[in-house]
Design goal:
heterodimer; A: about 280 residues; alpha+beta; Leucine-rich Repeat Variant; 3-stranded mixed β-sheet; 12 helices; about 15% strand; B: about 150 residues; 11-stranded antiparallel β-sheet; 11 strands
Chain lengths: ~280, ~150
Amino acid sequence: MVKLVQVIFILFYFSLVVAEENTNKQNSNFVVKLVGASGMEMQLHVREKPLALVLDEISNKTAVPIHYSVLPTDVVSATCVGDGLEFVLRCLLGDTVNMVFRYPASSLKGSTADHRVLPEEVWFIASSLVVKPSNKQNCQPQDNKALMTSVNGIGENNPQESLQYLLENARLADSSKRAQAIAKLARNTALDNEEVNDLIQSALDDESAKVRMQALSAWVLRSNDDITSEKMLEQALQDESRGVRLKAVNMAKTQMVLQQAVDDSDPLVRRYAERKLKRLIEKVK
Amino acid sequence: MKKNIIKKVLTAGVFLFGAGYITGASAHVTPEHDLYSGFSDSPVQYGATDVWQTTCSGGSDRLVFRILDTEAGRSNVSAQAYKDGKAANTVDLLGGDSTSSAFVKVASGDGVYTMIVSQSLPGFNFYILEYHCENANGGHTTTTQVFDPIQDQ
């Protein structure tokens, strides 16, 4: 009996050790760090993760908004160490992806920016992301302060993992993550993907206004039926959240929807609708 | 006396016609467009970036552009233009008045220039983008008029 208890204890202990090792392994597969007092040096270590996840993590850690409309569905593996976000993103994505970095005015020296300072915003030009960067990049240190070694760039196709990741995120408790996942799914999946369409449909009734807003945008973006879209927007104008109603005005392309919105109880919604309606009428003339 | 008045009127007419013609030929503006960003608690925002593209040809040296924020409020509208690794940024710091941001230029020759418009705060904004292509001497060159953004978010 004592031996049996010992065996169970050993097995239990062994399973705990294995679980912890797995967690450590998982964590060590994805590291984004800002090093140094000024946060200039950046380290990125990533193993076979969807590009969207990597960019989200970089954006979260640096608090720098990264704007893009379409991303390749590939997974990435890279190890990049360098001074500044621009350096690290170029290591991750390669020079073939067109990026625009907006630096704070205080970092400008003449016409050039100090690239070691964090930019205020980053844009990926959509057309350049369609083209896949080379599979393997040989990033070389540019000076003594930076060392960049990219093991593999984008190129290992695994769309299912990326889709799966976004579908899982769309069901998380965190409403921001749900909204982000819906936005990405709306733009990066086939219009006839039923799983995605069902998810967007149910997100229209989400408890979070942020998610409902994103779902409305996703629905209209993917719909090829103007009449249904118009009805959806009219319905959204009844939402209790001003944000959702503003989004409906934003997506509106017809006088019918905008005319309904100019009677909204909220002055901001009314003003937005009035201006859009005026513009639309002028355009028709 | 009568002759002089007619002469003056004709001269003024020709001058005004000429001025109008030159303005019409050189100024390219987008239709007034709106931006809307719904939430701000995530660093990755959606729905607040419009992308426009225009083509410079006929020996162009650069694209010159500026932006007019036509909605009063705290949020500033900015425009960035980009081509072949060169970019420039301009911001209209006061929305709702008739003064545009400063003209800035991107010198990347003939070809397609991408212009990105964004705003500094969540909410809605309206803007008009003004742009034209120039040769090395500052003379206006052929510029494609654009009516819709390639990305409207």
